[in-house]
Design a protein that fits this description.
PaaX_C, globular, PaaX-like_central, alpha+beta, single chain, 280 residues, 2 domains, Alpha-Beta Plaits, 4-stranded antiparallel sheet, PaaX family transcriptional regulator C-terminal domain-containing protein, WH_DNA-bd_sf, 10 helices
Length: 280
């Protein structure tokens, strides 16, 4: 799938301004002790077809959620990361560059989470399920969720006030249960594969990607697409997935393009971004 210069960037869930903002902050702000002028952020996002109104609204919402801190210098407002935002972005960085998309190091261990919540806690039950899915868990059967490897869900349980309602166990499959059956029952591997195929259709091309104006725009959209993918991927053991699992090729494409975009994107960003050094 190719797009001509001047075409509008194709829409997908990952092109939401907030998703793009997380990628921008992770690439250009995380670990640098700087704040960036909001007007220069608007200039960067204009390259992706995001309006000034959408950028300002996104920055405001993220500040209200405790993810951004505002800093004033003269008449200009700069935005920097809070410690909460740094934790969120660092988690994303690890998933992209360290954990990767293919789980070749699984040791056979599973984390099991069991719970039974009354209807009076229906909203909390929904929140718990959402958090478990985000953490890589699949729904095995009524009240039981599983994830490959060792997962620490203590913070989620404590935050939701569910210590007395949730049981967490470390386990291994035993006869007559087969690991392959656990994977097929708890996880929709076809849907996971479809997301990787969509990524490849979008990015595994021989010409300029997506008709975007420059490598800065392409870099941010690429990182956003990839981060959304790996955050939705439960990181299932490779030995229980098809040999042609699309995540393998998709990760190769991501890393190749990320390297290609890195230098020209940073050079361009340096001409656009107005940064304010923060005191340690």
């Amino acid at each position: 799938m190719t797009f001509r210069e001047g075409d509008d960037p194709p829409q997908s869930p990952s092109t939401r301004p907030q998703s793009l903002m997380f990628s921008f902050l992770g690439v250009y702000v995380l670990g640098r002790d700087v704040a960036v002028y909001s007007g220069s952020v608007i200039d960067v996002f204009a390259r992706l077809g995001v309006t000034e109104e959408a950028v300002r609204s996104t920055l405001t919402r993220m500040a209200k959620r405790g993810l951004l801190a505002r800093h004033r210098q003269g008449r200009r407002t700069y935005v920097g990361l809070t410690s909460h935002a740094e934790d969120v972005l660092e988690d994303g960085r690890r998933r992209v560059w360290e954990t990767g998309a293919v789980n070749r190091d699984w040791d056979g261990a599973w984390t099991l989470v069991g719970f039974s919540l009354p209807d009076s806690l229906r909203s909390t039950r929904h929140d718990l399920r959402s958090r478990l899915i985000w953490a890589g868990f699949g729904h095995l059967q009524s009240g039981m969720w599983i994830a490959p490897g060792t997962k620490d869900v203590s913070a989620v349980v404590a935050e939701l006030g569910l210590r007395d309602h949730v049981t967490v166990l470390a386990a291994r499959a035993a006869e007559p249960t087969e690991t392959a059956d656990l994977v097929s029952r708890a996880f929709d591997t076809e849907q996971i594969a479809a997301r990787y195929h969509a990524f490849l259709e979008r990015w595994d091309t021989t010409g300029p990607q997506l008709g975007l104006p420059d490598d800065l725009a392409r870099q941010l959209l690429l990182h956003t697409d990839w981060l959304q993918l790996v955050r939705q991927d439960p990181h299932l053991p490779a030995e229980h997935l098809p040999p042609d699992w699309p995540a393998i090729r998709a990760e190769q494409v991501f890393r190749t393009l990320a390297r290609a975009y890195e230098r020209p994107a940073r050079e361009l960003a340096a001409t656009i971004l107005d940064e304010l050094p923060l005191q340690p």
